[in-house]
Amino acid sequence: MSPPLLLRAADPADAGEILTVQRAAFVTEAQAHDTPHLPPLVETLTEVRAALTDGGTRVLVAELAGPRGGRLVGAARCTVRDGRGWIGRVAVAPDVAGTGIGSALLQRLHDDLGPSVTGFSLWTGGRSTGNHAWYAGHGYLVTGRTADHLGVPVVTMARPVLRGAPDPLASVVVVLSAAPDGPRPDPGEVAAGPLPGELARGALRHGESLRTAALRLAGPGAAFVRPLAYYRTGGDDTPVLATVLVRP
Amino acid sequence: MTAEPAGPSPAPAPVRGTVLATVLAAAFPALDAVPVLDRPDLVAEPVLQALRRGDLGDPAHLAVLVAAIDPALADTAAFCAAYDVPAERSANCVVVSGRREGEVRWAAAVVLATTRADVNGAVRRRMDVRKVSFGGHDETVAATAMEYGGITPVGLPAGWPVLVDSAVAAAGPVVIGSGVRGSKLVLDGASLGALPTAEVLDGLGRPVPAAP
């Protein structure tokens, strides 16, 4: 059984550990883009501290209980400007990457700030195809391709917050139980439904994220379910959202 | 400087670069851009000194604006998206160094955010060094007295060549760094060619390689 994960707001005393995890986490990004000068890697301790005391930025950290007390294993930030949340510096210690810590951090930011923003945006490396898929699994769609200050290719992604419509929302969540390499429905099939292997289908509630809704609809026993894909289909008025889930 | 002839009415207060400043501000509606010499607190000290000594033209008619931004959104990609600045109107300044006969040579390259500086080609040849590297964080900050994410060609140490891509000079209103992460300068890209050590070069910026 994995040790319990604690998510909490960062305080200035965490700056050093956040910087350490961030540097460790972004080395693979630096390798993928052939530069050690990526913004998360050139950030200084002073700048991390500034983010922690900046009233417009929410910084979360993740701690794992260990034999010698808690260990900071992840961090993520969100800066709100003009009603949009800018996610950044999502970092997880390399030895525990891929265990859901990043998802938990991102989900908490979505849940905490979702009610006060119209959507979330972020940028990630243009060659970080794993990141693109991971963010897509959390509801982000690619909105543009640009470059950072050194000319390193960058992809911008955004995720709408679905609300404002009557509660429950007109959107539908489809949850499928499928093997990791199993067939994926195409968006047209999702809209037509029901699908082979469909686990649940229901309404997205006001202020709820797609992932939260998917886990709620999947019911008990789906706690470790991991979203593999994200589709958006149907008209703008009645979007149909689908997440493909895999049981471990 | 010549004295104004005495006249019946008091001379109007000088207005800095009125028309161009209006054009510049209008190009970036999401930025709250004001004449930079009205807000000297928003830029790094060497940048202010350069502007006051006239590196970009007569300080009394300076058409350079400054806009405060959220330092948490200073990374180029986030900045452009959050403040509605198209990448083709955002110029990046990279500081590079190389060695020649034991001596460290520095230079800066200014290219549009849609491109990456051809550091190992055009920049290296101009510097006449065998190998060029991006300036590391600590040495760059120490040499420029600017914040790493806010490096700007204005106010760099005397003698550093400032290589400006001709696409920047032809871009019209552009946004560049201010020496700090908490603000940006808005100016006519062509005015960068007036910097004391500026050289406008064709082909300095190469298209960003497409992601796989």
UniProtKB/TrEMBL annotation, chain A:
It holds the Pfam family Acetyltransf_7. Transmembrane segments: none annotated. Residues 5-162 form the N-acetyltransferase domain. GO terms for molecular function: acyltransferase activity, transferring groups other than amino-acyl groups. PROSITE patterns: GNAT. InterPro entries: Acyl_CoA_acyltransferase, GNAT_dom. It comes from the Bacteria. This is N-acetyltransferase domain-containing protein.
